[in-house]
Design brief:
By secondary structure, the chain is mainly alpha-helical. About 55% of the residues lie in helices and about 0% in strands. The chain has 6 helices and no strands. The chain is elongated.
Amino acid sequence: MTDPTLEKLGLTVEQVRKAFGTPEPPPFENRDLSGKNYLNGKDQKRMQRRLKLYEAFISVRFLEGYHPGTIGRILACSEESVRVRLRKAGFFSS
């Protein structure tokens, strides 16, 4: 894998890493993403499908007085995901 910008400068990736003292990252297959605080593409699609099914649940619970964070914990998703669904449903002004 070569970078066009580095080619223009006459440098290699290894030279840049050595100059900055950064180690080579592990191959993508060996990266452990379980400890990260974000969802990968597969999990994002799963959450989108789940939240589409739960839009009525979210709206009703919000009208009952539940906080978006509480609704998120009930559905095992983030508070921001719940807020986005409520905003799309017209509960908040953007």
